[in-house]
Amino acid sequence: MNPFTTLTGIAAPLLRANVDTDLIIPKQFLTTLVRSGLGRHLFDELRHDLEGREVPDFILNREPYRKAAILLSGPNFGCGSSREHAPWALLDFGIRCVVAPSFADIFFNNCFSNGVLPVVLPAESIARLAAEAGPLIVDLPTQTVSGAHCGFRFEIEAARKAALLEGMDEIKRSEANLADIEAYETRRRVEAPWLAIGGR
Using CA atoms in the order 152, 137, 4, 154, what is the torsion angle rounded to 10 degrees? Predict the structure, then answer.
C-alpha cells in the first residue's frame, strides 16, 4: 500500500446521497480478485450507456475530471453490500480520497485497508470545495482539505492516520507486532498445551 501524505489533484463533484457499492462497481465486475483493471468499470452504469458508449454528461467523462484524484460526494457514501472491490475500483481509477458528510461503516473501513482516505466534512464545506476552480490539496499530516479560496480541517483516528502515512495495511501492521505475537504463542503453549495444534 502506497503511503498517503499530501495529495494535490482534481476533485470531481458527485454530490448525491446514498451512492451504493453496486453503483460504484456493479456486481457483474466482481468475478476477479485482481485489483487492477477495475477502474474502467467505476460507476459503469453512470459512465456508459447500454451499448458501452460513454455518457458525455457524466462528470468522470468530462475534462478535467477524467483525471480526478479526489471525489466529492453526498451523505451515506458506500452504502449497500460490503464489496471490497469498491475502494479497489476507486483506487485503480486514480481516486485516493473521497470527501462526504458520512460513509457506510464497512466501506469506510475498507478504504483505510486499501489506501483510500475517506474524509468526513459537512455538506456545506463540500459544496464550497466543489465550487473551487482549481485542484484541491488533501494534507493528511495537518488533516486539512483546501482550495485556493477555502480550507477545512477533518478528524481521523490517530492509528488510522499513522497507518496511511506509513503505507501500512492490516497485514503489515500485524507483522510490525510479530515479536509480541510469537511471545504470546510461546506463552500460550506453556499455559494451555491442550490447545496446541498438530503437535506444535
Answer: 0
CB-based burial label for 113 (10 Å; 0-12, 13-18, 19+):
middle
The CA–CA distances, whole Å, from 136 to 19, 119, 142 equal 22, 13, 14
pLDDT one-digit tens code per residue, 95-124: 999 999 999 999 999 999 999 999 999 999
CATH of 6-167, one of 3.40.190.10, 3.20.19.10, 3.50.50.60, 2.40.10.350: 3.20.19.10
Give the whole-angstrom CA distance, residue 73 versus residue 76: 9
Cβ partners under 8 Å of residue 148, min gap 6:
132, 133, 134
Residues 149-188: tens digit of each pLDDT? 999 999 999 999 999 999 986 666 666 677 778 888 888 8
Sheet holding 11-14, edge to edge: 11-14, 70-73, 97-100, 117-120
| 3-class SS of residue 117 | strand
Spatial separation of the C-alpha atoms in residues 196 and 192, rounded to whole Å: 8
